[in-house]
Fold this protein.
Amino acid sequence: MTEEPTRIQLTSLPTPLEPAPRLAEAIGLGPEDLWLKRDDLTGVGGGGNKLRKLEYFAAVALRNGADVLVTTGAAQSNHARLTAAVAAKLGLRSVLVFPGEPGASSSGNLVVDGLVGARIEWAGDVPLHELGQYADGVAARLAGEGARPLLIPYGGSSSLGARGYVVCAQEILERLPEVRHVVTAAGSGGTMAGLVAGLGVERVLGVDVGARPDLAEAVASFASPLVGATLDPATLRIRDQVGAGYSSYTPETEAAMVLAARTEGVVLDPIYTGRALAGLVAAVRHGEIRAGETTVLVHTGGLPGLFGHPVATSNAQALLR
């Protein structure tokens, strides 16, 4: 592991690590096997996993004298929401670059974006993983106007941002040194990369949510500098829960969300954490994770996104009785 760079404390760590006995038994594990790492409880801007990454980017911004944070994501991006909230906390401006056109949605994370003062640049018909080039142009234009922008990568995912999840891995090991599996949603790849760097390839199961087509390669590229060796993407444990695409709402995800809510009172979101649990359920069903093996599900947050997903909200309303 290379020397630890500076980070700005944005949240109180460690986050809680809670047993989930009823959920464990419901999916076929023993009551003492399953734990929830509550990274949804990180505080700023509604909480979520991206704050661990943003602690490092915030330090870079302040060190370089930046006055505006620029980043990309889907319109319901949790990372964009938290970047804007961190900017507000630090007294900076924020510009969020989204695909699509204005007016397509006004709920969920977009509500928080507005509250914390973000400015949104709509990029039109640009694939999510190709927004970086458009954002480069936005940052260049801001610089030409006299601003001092810091461009934060998609999802806050890079070797620098991934360090936040090396810290998370250390927190897990301090409480559960015998942990056998750590399951996380894998979108832009930084969270999984940090966990792999801190725990090793064999203990981390990433659940692909369909945010990028090169997930394994991205995770390996982010993690490799942190471990001081080149990781082979083919060795990573990744389980597919993409369904019809990144924004889709699958029956497996819905079943997982209902199960978590009704066994532990824990609310998951339809894009990340719901899929992560669905992937864990599938891994147990196929024997990849077995009873008697200590397992941690990382709750990466995303609750505002639930209220911005029309299918998820309408289906949840139909469950009322």
Remarks:
- The chain has a mean pLDDT of 94.
